[in-house]
Structure formats: C-alpha cells, structure tokens
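Teaching assistant's notes for section 4

Start the section by putting this record on the projector. Ask students to predict, before seeing the second block, whether DUF4922 domain-containing protein will look compact or extended. Collect guesses on the board.
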Amino acid sequence: MNELRERVEDLLDNQIRNWELVRTNTYALASLKTRYLYIRDFPVILQFNPERIRSSAAKTDTASLQARPCFFCHRPEEQYGIDYNDAFDILVNPYPISSGHLTIPLKWHEDQQILPYYEDMLWLAHDLQDYAVFYNGPKCGASAPDHMHFQAMELGNLPIEMNYKKASKGIVWEGRNTVLYVLYDFMASAFLLISSDLREADYAFKQLYAQLEIKEGDSEPMMNVVTWKDEDNWKDEDNWISCIFPRKELRPSCFYAEGDANILISPATVEMAGLFITPLEKDFDKVTSEDLETILREVSISEEEKNEIVRKMIQSSSRK
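Reveal the predicted structure now:
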C-alpha cells in the first residue's frame, strides 16, 4: 500500500468515526439487499440502496442547478479531504454505493468535462491502487454536472472488471503499448482501451473522443468512463484498463413511465459497468434481466452508430 492509499484509509476511518452521516450510511451497506442477474450471459448486480435516491432522481437541468448552491463548493463542516496534485480533493462520499466510495472534485468550480482531465484519471487509477476511477458525463449520471469531478470505489465491486475479459473484441486502433478495442455483443455499446503507456493511452482516448458526436447545445459527447489498473494478460504488464460507454440518452423511457411500468433507474457509470442501483424496493423486487438490457440499450448509442465510429477511427488511422 502506497502513501496515498494509506492516507485514504485514514480519511475513511476518520470520517466514519466523526461524521454521523458517513458512519450511518457506511454501516448500512452491510444490510443492503442485492440480486444477481445476467445480461447476454454477462453477470450483473442489482442493489437496493434507498440513500441513493438523491442521485437517481437528481434534477440536473440548468434552472435546477442555478437554484441550488454547488455542493462541492459548499461542503458540510464535517467533510474534509486529501489534496491531490494541487488540482483535486479526495473526499469520502457520504452516500456510498460500496465501502471506500470516494468523490474527487476539482478544486475550482468548472463544468464537468473529461477531455482535459482524462490523463488525471489515469494517474488517479495508478496512485489509488486497487481502485476503479469513474466519470459520469454531464448528461450521463452526474448529479453535479456544474462541477468537474470523478468518483472511485475499490476494485471488486463492478462486474465490468471481469466481464470485459470474455467479451468479443475487434481492434480499432493500435499503438506501441496501447490497443483500443470495440466490444461486440456486449451488455452495452462500449470501447475498451488497454495500455501500459499513460501518454499513449491519453492520445488513443482523444482519437476516440474526436469521432464521437456532440449534440447541439452540449459541451462534450455523452459518455461514461471507468478506468483501473490491472495485470491484464496483454503483454503480461501492469496496464490501464478503460471502458468507454458512448451514450445517446440521459434516462430510459421506464424512468418517465407511470404506474407499474415505472422503474427508477437512472444509468450512470456504475450501471453501465454492471452494478445497477435502485432506490425503490418495488423496483428491486420486480426488475428483470430483460428490463436491465432494455435500459442499457435505450441510453446507449446503437450498433449502427458504434460501427460508424469504428469506421471513422480506422479511416482516420489509415491516413496517418
């Protein structure tokens, strides 16, 4: 365990001891109900977590954001963090999905955006050791799209960590120490980046980013990203693993449906990675694998759109 991990462990222990909200919600994790389902033969987890209603039902339209103070700029007195590279603060998330759930906001108020900070994401995954770092786009699950932040949780909680290994893959871009794949017949439309070279990984991500559509009125392509370090079998090295999930919708149709058709699941990165959070017990009891597959399909880009991105990536690479 490196120095940063030791400081994170101390932070977690201190916040649990001295902040009642964190203590209550962390201890409650032990009694959360879970179900195990499959989407296209890939195992996924459904978690009933009532405290996550704030995130699942968060209003993120411009008027709602302007009507409330930024909760990263106006933190509770009990909350303190660890400085990271003079740019981010590592904080304990008071509404955790798993033990050790961290929130990592930028020190200054700036809109949620991945492109200038993907390299920071790679460094965080390296320095935190055994943590997955994830990014929710401003219209892809971020409950604070007006303030740039990452989140992180200990490895072992997200099904994607194993599911990506058995997914069918096609090479889209290849460098000396980096491969960017497209995943076929997966739970959702996704790209997989494996690299032992941080700079080259950042370059490959930017090549993919450049081919993603930015909708009118948006500041970046809709996407979710999760990154971690793993001794993957590719080149037998300690590699960065990034899964990028291009999106087309904030929420599925069932979120807005009425009556029995309503399911309050609002996909963010953890859902795209196979951990579905529902704050309502009625949804936890009734949701099926087919429901979850439909939810992912409705918020993800289509197969045709994914294949067009692949075509443009290959065409762009062939010109160089």
